[in-house]
Amino acid sequence: MQITVESASPAKGTIVSLHGKLDAISTGDVEKALLDAIAGGEVKLLVDCSKLDFISSAGLRSFIMAIKRMKPSGGTITLVAMQRDVNEIIHISGLAPLFKIQPTRAAALV
What we know:
The chain has helices spanning 27-39, 57-70, 84-92, 105-108, and strands spanning 2-9, 13-22, 44-55, 76-80, 100-102.
């Protein structure tokens, strides 16, 4: 799992790009990236899923943990450019309503 964290702009938030498989092996690094951004005061977090091939229940747990940490600040997590399989898992799991979902990275940065 490759993780890239970049700051889009103060108004747009922080982008965390995920590449590969988000499973029990890689979830620690993803949780750290998400929670570090939140601990740093970020209230707009964009998770670029365009190169995320797979997400397991452990990966879903990472996203849920981040949402729980964002809740007190009123922050949002936007899942961006999800591939079909990842999108399906997010929706089947019932987690889709917890996130903002954007079909493309460009749409999320508007």
